[in-house]
From TrEMBL:
It comes from Comamonas sediminis. Pfam families: Epimerase. It comes from the Bacteria. Residues 18-248 form the NAD-dependent epimerase/dehydratase domain. Gene3D superfamilies: NAD(P)-binding Rossmann-like Domain. This is NAD-dependent epimerase/dehydratase family protein. InterPro entries: Epimerase_deHydtase (IPR001509), NAD(P)-bd_dom_sf (IPR036291), NAD(P)-dependent_oxidoreduct (IPR051783).
């Protein structure tokens, strides 16, 4: 190529890899591509999506991504990832450990370890990375407002695996900072949307799952799936390196108030309220774990540093849209 001659467009576009291209990853793709548009005709980045299911390849191509076959549980399948992308979106959850796994091993995220090993295999070509973590790493704060600088109090194995992933990612970025490595962690609360499987409270309302009485109730935070996808894109291009950002809407609601609001919007009876002691006898350990943690997420950093303007400022706005989309009395999935 002659000196000064511009590179072809396909070489000027940023190369992005999405790992864990489920509901939120697909919403990210829709922000860049129009469904059915050929990837090379798009104006967004050149996107590859890692998937362990060849059956999903056609749907990923329809969204403008080039699918790659790989499995985070099988490190050998990840060898092609080194140097493949300049930016990586890591939305894959840790694997659920087998029954009987020792607690020290059950709290580790081997999938993130395998991914980072693959990405660092080629010297001088280390990408910038955005990781979708969970606000569960904060644990219980008795309803207090929680910022990104609060200490972590994770108590469940589920949350401890996310803590392990965050620590791996930040250590990886510090070790390879000279090669351009950078990590931005998004801490995400409950995700909801009318067009997301299990993305509304409707399923639990229809099943009549009880809630805690007000004196035992806990504060929870939420984010609409579309706003989360927009936050991922913002963090990918504008996020500060080695930074953590809470991604939450402006709601500050008790869990029971959230479900009562949904019941009113869907014109269903309010769930029965029970004490925490009764809940311990009636509800599953997983559901109970959410009822033992109370916190309200501050989203100041999300607004000021990522510059994200929410489309659904509160769950009232988002659930109203979900009622319109899903329809009264029809669940989009098993429910949150």
């Amino acid at each position: 190529m002659a000196a000064g001659q511009a590179l072809p467009a396909r070489f000027r576009r940023q190369r992005v890899l999405i790992v864990g291209c489920g509901d939120v990853g697909q919403r990210v793709l829709r922000l860049w591509q129009r469904p059915g548009q050929h990837a090379h005709a798009a104006r967004g980045p050149l996107v590859r999506a890692l998937s362990s299911s060849p059956q999903r390849f056609d749907s990923l191509r329809a969204l403008g991504a080039t699918p790659l076959l790989g499995n985070l549980d099988e490190p050998r399948s990840l060898r092609r990832l080194a140097g493949l992308a300049q930016r990586v979106v890591h939305l894959a959850p840790p694997a659920q450990p087998a029954a009987g796994t020792p607690p020290t091993l059950a709290s580790r995220d081997l999938r993130t370890r395998h991914l980072l090993q693959a990405l660092a295999c080629r010297a001088g070509q280390v990408p910038q990375l955005v990781y979708g973590s969970t606000s569960g790493v904060y644990g219980n704060w008795d309803g207090a407002w929680v910022t990104e600088t609060h200490p972590l109090r994770a108590s469940t194995a589920r949350a401890l695996r996310r803590v392990d992933a965050e620590r791996q990612l930040r250590a990886w970025a510090r070790r390879l900072v000279a090669s351009g490595a950078a990590v931005h962690v998004l801490r995400i609360p409950g995700i909801y949307a009318g067009d997301r499987e299990g993305g509304t409270p409707l399923g639990r309302l229809q099943r009549g799952t009880p809630l805690l009485r007000r004196e035992d109730d806990v504060y929870t935070s939420h984010i609409h799936a579309d706003d989360l996808a927009r936050a991922v894109v913002r963090a990918l291009w504008r996020g500060m390196p080695q930074r953590i950002t809470n991604v939450a809407d402006d709601s500050a609601m008790l869990m029971g108030d959230y479900f009562d609001l949904a019941a009113d919007l869907w014109r269903l009876p309010h769930p029965m309220r029970i004490s925490l002691a009764e809940a311990e006898q009636q509800l599953s350990p997983t559901l109970l774990s959410f009822m033992r943690e109370s916190r309200r997420l501050s989203n100041t950093r999300m607004r000021q540093e990522l510059g994200l303007v929410l489309r659904y400022q509160t769950v009232h706005h988002g659930l109203q849209a979900a009622v319109y989309l899903v329809g009264a009395g029809t669940a989009a999935g098993p429910g949150a």
